[in-house]
């Protein structure tokens, strides 16, 4: 498979102090890392594309580690995660699906074996397209306080023959989360759900 060609990267971190109520004792950090890469399948239909997932694995791991560093450097501080991809207009949605394994497993590895499935979304879009990347707790998908999303995009990306691959991590629940359900302190850790 072709070597992964990165045109640019973006790392962004936001700190949320409150959502109208009292400021949180510790602000929530939400961070995203985006790599804009050449889409080797742009402009044509290719039947066998799965091998490119292996080529993306080193990029996924490097991105996961860099995002953890941007969020303070402590993998134990990360409580939520998600991933996504925006495929340029000369590509197809299935090209974005190539990011599932390299992005998801990289975050799980970098976080020390997180158990929950990494939520994901993808779409085809042009330069400036934005993607709402879903987030859940890293060890139990049913922890409602950590259901979240982060809007991510880059003004000039992706170009028609590119893809923007994205990882998102958070350091805790939504600020002022109060809709009940399974609490993070109640996670059993048996199946990645509860």
From TrEMBL:
It holds the Pfam family AA_synth. This is Amino acid synthesis family protein.
């Amino acid at each position: 498979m072709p070597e992964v060609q990165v045109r640019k990267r973006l790392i962004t971190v936001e700190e949320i102090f409150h959502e109208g109520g009292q400021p949180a004792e510790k602000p929530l950090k939400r961070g995203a890392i985006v790599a804009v890469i050449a889409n080797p399948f742009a402009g044509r239909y290719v039947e066998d594309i799965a091998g490119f997932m292996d080529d993306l694995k080193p990029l996924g791991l490097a991105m996961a580690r860099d995002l953890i560093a941007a969020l303070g450097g402590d993998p134990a501080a990360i409580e939520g995660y998600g991933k996504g991809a925006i495929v340029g207009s000369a590509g197809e949605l299935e090209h974005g699906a190539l990011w599932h394994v390299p992005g998801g497993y990289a975050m799980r590895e970098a976080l020390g074996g997180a158990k929950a499935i990494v939520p994901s979304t993808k779409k085809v879009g042009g330069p400036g397209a934005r993607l709402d990347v879903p987030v859940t707790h890293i060890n139990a998908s049913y922890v409602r306080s950590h259901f979240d999303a982060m809007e991510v995009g880059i003004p000039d990306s992706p170009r028609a023959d590119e893809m923007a691959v994205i990882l998102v991590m958070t350091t805790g629940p939504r600020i002022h989360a109060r809709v009940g359900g399974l609490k993070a302190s109640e996670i059993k850790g048996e199946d990645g759900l509860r």
